[in-house]
Amino acid sequence: MDELITFDKTVVGEVWGSHDWPVTQELCDAWQNLLSDETPAYTADGKRAMPQGLLLVMYANCSVALRPNRPSGGVHAKQKLSFGVPAYVGDVLTTQVKVSDKYLKRERRYVELETITTNQHGEMVVNGVRTTIVSA
Amino acid sequence: MLDASIAPGDTIGPVTLEVTHALAKEFTVISKDMNSSHYDDAAAQRLGFPAAIQHSAISSSLLFRMLADWKGSVLQGDDEFECAFIAPIFLGDTPMARGVVTEVTDSVVSCDFWCENQHGAKTIVGKARIRRA
User: Among A61, A80, B51, B94, which is least packed by CB within 10 angstroms?
Assistant: First the structure.
């Protein structure tokens, strides 16, 4: 089993790699059904855009895929997002994850991950900074 | 597209959702996040929480939905969003998303938003900058 990547072993500046995440109709249907979300804005431009709450699911999936040996029990503390083109059903989103910072504050261990997400055409979908309080 | 008459002080939302056990359990399937503290009160209590804590994607989904409803499309084209998760949402809670317009220019509408639980306590706070088409 791989060694657990704790706060102390997290390296600022390290690129964890990139992960592909398909935006399927099944996923968007399940998400909207789950949340009773019938927002007409998702089809405002004639195509079906991905509900953007799914971005946080995508980020979590990417982190687990790229670094499965992280301590469990982390808490999502902050999220910044800067948007490009919408993600549509049928797209495959590729997210690159890099450790941009880590710090201690009030005896809590914070790790910041910088994310760059593009679609299959290479267009920027969303850039983000995800701050997590890690458990170890 | 944002309404041309939009002005500071205009309210956004609300959008609300009841976080049921069925919803929390189904979320684990959709998200592939099998952390039992998201749907099992006993598992969350072992971590020191009073009840199962909800994934940030559930509560933030209300905010994205509210902003999309208000804007008329999903966020895009240099729109910006940032938030802080300041308190957990628990199984059985009924979070509500709300917002207020803070500044309007020819090119950008800024707003503050938040999510609160059924007791009126804020659980997420944040702000967005929406580009006018």
Answer: B94
- Residue A22: is the preceding peptide bond cis (ω within 30°)? no
In angstroms, the Cα distances linking A64 to A16, A136, B63 are 11, 16, 24
**Domain boundaries in chain B?**
11-131
Contact A56 B81 (CB under 8 A): no
Long-range contacts from B101-108, C-beta under 8 angstroms, 24+ separation: B101/B6, B101/B7, B101/B8, B101/B9, B101/B10, B101/B11, B101/B12, B102/B8, B102/B127, B103/B8, B104/B6, B104/B7, B104/B8, B106/B132, B107/B131, B107/B132, B108/B132
- Closest residue, chain A, to B87 (C-alpha): A77
B68–A39 CB contact, under 8 Å:
yes
Closest CA–CA distance from residue A13 to any residue of chain B (Å): 22
**CATH superfamily assigned to domain B11-131:** Hotdog Thioesterase (3.10.129.10)
Give first-to-last CA distance, chain B, whole Å.
7
The nearest CA of chain A is from the CA of B125 a distance in Å of 10
Size of interface A-B (CB pairs under 8 A): 117
Query: Would residue A120 count as lying in a domain?
Result: yes
Q: Is the Cβ pair A86, B76 closer than 8 Å?
A: yes
- ipTM greater than cut 0.90: yes
User: Rounded to a whole number, what is the distance in Å from the CA of B44 to chain A's nearest CA?
Assistant: 10
Q: Looking at the predicted structure, is the pLDDT value of residue B99 above 80?
A: yes
